[in-house]
Design a protein that fits this description.
Receptor (G protein-coupled) activity modifying protein 2, DNA polymerase, domain 1, single chain, mainly alpha
């Protein structure tokens, strides 16, 4: 019994030492980046926890960075190579903050952010519309079954004849 109590005491003292000097948050915080604790502390100080309001405020940091990068890159935004870096950074930023706050990603707030930036920056970009395939392809797709139907009918007739071959 004394050994068990001694073990528990050592274990608890180890836990105490491991958290010494750190603020203990009353909620779980992700730890996938060096900024997670900072994000969680901001949410705790201003929103008392990792709420969607806090996420919205933190995602404004991502949006601001994206806006600055897009303003610096005033070339054609419709060319993916010109904006892929900024777009990827925005995506990673929103994912990192959501993961830190243990809020599922993507979520409606993040989806709305991307809809908004597409409306703001990419609304004038041409889109590839679906069109009919060339006439040669249509002809091949239509004529193949038409030609196969008589062949299949004759095969069925030949196979269903009587086995004696008299009919």
């Amino acid at each position: 019994m004394k050994r068990a109590l001694g073990f528990i005491g050592v274990f608890l003292s180890f836990l105490y030492d491991a958290s010494a000097g750190e603020d203990i948050l009353p909620f779980d915080c992700g730890n996938n980046s060096h900024n997670c604790k900072n994000f969680c502390h901001l949410c705790y100080e201003f929103y008392q926890g990792p709420t969607m309001d806090c996420l919205s405020g933190l995602l404004n940091l991502c949006l601001h960075t994206f806006d600055v990068e897009m303003a610096q890159n005033s070339t054609n935004w419709c060319i993916w190579g010109n904006v892929s870096g900024s777009y990827s950074n925005l995506s990673l930023c929103t994912e990192e903050i959501s993961d830190c706050l243990l809020i599922p990603w993507p979520n409606p707030l993040v989806e709305q952010i991307f809809v908004d930036i597409h409306t703001k920056f990419f609304k004038d970009c041409p889109t590839e519309e679906l069109s009919d395939p060339p006439p040669v392809i249509i002809f091949a797709l239509v004529i193949t079954p038409i030609c196969l139907i008589p062949v299949m009918v004759s095969l069925v007739v030949l196979k269903t004849k009587n086995g004696d071959g008299s009919t």
